[in-house]
Write a structure and sequence with these properties.
methyltransferase; 26% strand; alpha/beta; 480 residues; single chain; MeTrfase_TrmA_AS; OB fold (Dihydrolipoamide Acetyltransferase, E2P); Rossmann fold; S-adenosyl-L-methionine; 11 helices; methyltransferase activity
């Protein structure tokens, strides 16, 4: 196979070397060794022999780009998307369409296990089977950039180019739902026809669990009637609700106010439908989200009389299903607006009498907060954590030190590094056990790793014992 690739940063006399690829790193780059240094080669896969162009040279490692494939490995596939690649101008939305999907999942599982060990000196008692979802058409939320570039023939609508702020010249996208992928070229034509085309930087797309679609047009100047009529006509033709966003995400609103809560996040196993807006945070992969919620609820081992607490609850993606399985759930979230929306969702699902939502900064959660919540709830049986990438360090520290502890904690994470840090705090400082952990392939063809872990309370270590053990093994919980 003689396909060539080129680095964006051209050198006058590029340094090129031949290397055998041994493994993959967490970003899907091939890893080999040359002259005692690790070499990370973008576009290369295990058991391949390649020629790479060096783009960064450090004392202990090198970064490079594949420029010639000398021997193709068994994991390489032909990318489905015509816009995928490493050449200048290729779309940067995916990183691993050339890698067998099963190998992508295995790589992500290894990323999780490595993070738990290297960051937290933790080994799960059980490695959970990975959760799979659809590989194509899974991305139900996306932010498409818009640029009017005369040198490229006019308006571009799509994701950014690989390692660039430029917008890729796209005509389709197989990770988007088919009807959205087929809308890309018509959207280009629509924007071309608008007076505000040079003041329209992005289009947010959201598709709900039933296929209803919303398009949010971010505009930097007021939308005149002629342009608005064209937007609405496009929506009617393509079956999409039209939203306008003149400022930040909170300013987004549908042209027809009756459609403000038309989108629904559906969780059929629990009889739950959660209204959401296209600029809200929701999981982009509806099918996998349903399986993830189901697994989390089962792992918590709920019984009818229990009280559960959902930290970082958002709109109630976990809170409302939990309320179907136990006596009461408290949802905690940092945003007053989200808490109000979560309450409305509970009411719409007939769960307002089983739920309680509280606005609270969870990054400053304290022992006092925990004790007050415990007293108000007459005890806490189960805890679910679903934090953003920053993790839940403050909550982990409180749970590690608390005298009164729940029977189980399930931690859903979008960042293996902060998951490992927080689990290390619970285990080394609080005596918790990491009973199980595994990954969920929420974002196929990317390096994003979504994971889930089960923690069970164990005997607390003698003061300083957990830290000494971790330090002996090479971890430092205080720094995690």
């Amino acid at each position: 196979m003689g396909r060539s690739y080129h680095s964006k940063k051209k050198q006058k006399t590029p340094d090129r070397f031949e290397i055998e690829i041994e493994s993959l790193d967490q970003n899907g780059r091939g890893v080999g060794h040359r002259e005692g240094k690790a070499v990370f080669v973008e576009g290369a896969l295990p058991r391949e022999r390649v020629i790479y162009e060096r783009v960064r040279n450090k004392a202990s490692f090198e970064d490079g780009w594949i420029v010639r494939l000398l021997r193709e490995g068994p994991l390489r596939l032909k990318p489905r998307c015509p816009h995928f690649g490493l050449e200048p101008g290729c779309c940067g939305g995916c990183a691993m369409q050339h890698l067998d999907p099963a190998a992508q999942v295995a790589m992500k599982q290894r990323v999780l296990i490595d993070a738990l060990w290297h960051i937290g000196k933790l080994r799960p008692e059980l490695i959970l089977p990975p959760i799979y979802g659809p590989y194509w058409g899974y991305r139900h939320r996306a932010r498409l950039s818009v640029r009017d570039v005369a040198k490229k023939g006019g308006v571009l609508v799509g994701f950014h180019e690989r390692s660039s702020s430029f917008v890729a010249q796209m005509h389709c996208c197989p990770i988007l739902p088919r009807h959205v992928s087929e809308m890309i070229d018509p959207l280009r034509g629509l924007v071309e026809s608008l007076k505000i085309r040079q003041r329209l930087p992005q289009i947010e797309v959201a598709v709900d669990g039933r296929g209803r679609t919303a398009l949010v047009f971010r505009h930097l100047v007021p939308v005149e009637k002629d342009d608005l009529d064209k937007l609405l006509a496009f929506g009617r033709e393509h079956g999409a609700d039209i939203w306008l966003q003149p400022a930040g995400p909170d300013s987004a609103a549908p042209v027809d106010p009756a459609l403000r809560d038309a989108l629904r996040l559906t969780l059929p196993e629990f009889g739950v439908e959660i209204p959401f807006r296209p600029t809200d945070f929701t999981q982009v992969n509806h099918d996998l989200n349903r399986v993830m919620v189901s697994r989390a609820v089962r792992m918590l081992g709920l019984e009818p009389g229990m009280h559960a607490v959902d930290f970082f609850c958002g709109l109630g993606n976990f809170t409302l299903p939990l309320a179907r399985r136990c006596a009461r759930v408290t949802g905690l979230e940092g945003s007053d607006a989200l808490v109000a929306r979560a309450r409305a969702g509970a009411t719409a699902n007939g769960l307002s009498d089983k739920t309680d939502f509280v606005a609270r900064n969870l990054f400053t959660w304290s022992q006092k907060d925990w004790d007050e919540l415990w007293e108000r709830s007459s005890g806490i049986d189960r805890v679910l954590l679903d934090p953003p990438r920053e993790g839940a360090q403050a909550v982990a520290q409180v749970l590690a030190a608390a005298e009164r502890r729940p029977g189980r904690v399930v931690y859903v994470s979008c960042n293996p590094a902060t998951l490992a840090r927080d689990c290390a705090i619970l285990m080394h400082q609080g005596g918790w056990r990491l009973a199980a952990a595994g990954i969920m392939n929420m974002f196929p063809h990317t390096g994003h790793v979504e994971s889930i872990a089960l923690l069970l309370p164990g005997p607390k270590p003698v003061q300083g014992e957990g830290e000494k053990k971790a330090e002996k093994e090479g971890a430092s919980p205080a720094a995690c």
